[in-house]
Design brief:
The chain has 63 residues and is mainly beta. It is built from 1 helix and 3 strands. The longest helix has 7 residues.
Length: 63
């Protein structure tokens, strides 16, 4: 999203069983672009795609 300011936030999610033992851990990353050309944009990377940071930084806005 070249030319636009964005905020990148990473959340670590943890699933535990009833005894408190961690069963699964994942990181979810999201970018918020409040002043995008068409209005605010939220990009959520649920699957942790490798290289998405770079792709978004180099991306251009379409119509």
């Amino acid at each position: 999203m070249a030319g636009s300011d964005a905020t990148r936030t990473a959340y670590t999610l943890s699933c535990q069983d009833d005894a408190g033992k961690e069963q699964y851990r994942a990181t979810q990353v999201q970018w918020t672009v409040p002043d995008a050309p068409g209005g605010p944009v939220l990009v959520v990377d649920r699957w942790a795609f490798e290289g998405l940071d770079t792709r978004l930084a180099e991306a251009t806005w379409g119509e």
